[in-house]
Fold:
Amino acid sequence: MSIEADADALVARLPVGGRTIVSGCSAESLLFADALDRAGEALGAMTFTGIFVPALNRRTYLANLSCKTETFFLTPELKAARDAVTFLPLCYADIRQRLRYAPPDAALMMLSPPDEDGICSFGSTVDFLAELWPSIPVRLAHINPLMPRTRGEARIPLTSITAMVESPQPLLGMPDSGSDAVSDAIAGYIAPLVPDGATLQTGLGKVPGAVFRALTGRRNLRVHSGLIGDAVVDLEEAGALAPGAAVMAGVAIGSERLYQAITGPAYRFAPVALTHDGLAIRAIRDFIAINSATEVDLFGQVYAEVGPKGFMSGPGGASDFARGAKLADGLRIVALAATAAKGTISRIVAPNAGAGPVSLGRMDVDIVVTEFGLADLRGGTHSERAAALIAIAAPDHRADLTAQWRSFIEKL
Structure:
């Protein structure tokens, strides 16, 4: 293992024209990103890949005209790069499979400083790299004194690193934006579905935050999720979490409050091989998956990958957790605001009328929740399911949805 004076010397070790995976999410190294920009043409036709989160990870890694980036989420910056970017709309299980069977040539990782045994932690962002690193030949590390040391098996010996540079960098963050009347109303319908002792999976945003805050009166809750945000700290501080390591996650994205909390004994970090594994989730009692959507059609099909400006994401981990929840005989909840554009556009839509591909099939969803109520789709006929969904649409759109359903049925 070599200690370099600066990131430029580490970047010079990358295999020219190779494929490099970078730490993303809250552990993106701006030190490495800047060094790559300076390296420019010396990188050759290099391809970069990683998990890049919109509004958090803003770098493109396109250091020269021959560089390419593979991504599984479309940040605005990557979308603007067009032909230089390959968008792979894969669920997390398939991302893992792709990376395992075609390992990158090099990794640019952000790690915590080593402990007394010479072991570094992947800190706030474990996801894929913590499992993949043994199969990656060139391992370059940004040792960040500000990276929290998290518990779990996601570690790497300092002696296994090809070369390193040490420099402080605050973790990238996305503080809790609070809630609003819509998200609070949605949380009010979800909270009664969550018993004491349940295990929750959810993501970031107003609704997950509102749900967690609505559950602070519960006890012995656990979290098993690919991603956690600030709201999980609300559960911890309220005494709502079970004793011991109640939170298992792959990535933390939030504020300094969260990054300080995740060093504690309540938190354990694990790679996608465990957080998103259906068989692991199968063993969890009272598992409840709560995921968001942009639209739900009257069949109960969920759309979550296209926004007003086009593609923004692949399916992410929602399908992995829906599959696991089914194996666990758990509950699969999809939550969304009933309207967009100040109430003029219904997000409950006619059959097959959602934008983009179906992210979750109609058999992957148990309950859909908006601020107007919940629709329990389990065991219903097509017409019963449609009626339940129309009932939680915004009142101004219910008549149109009813007419659209009738028109669809009459054509069959």
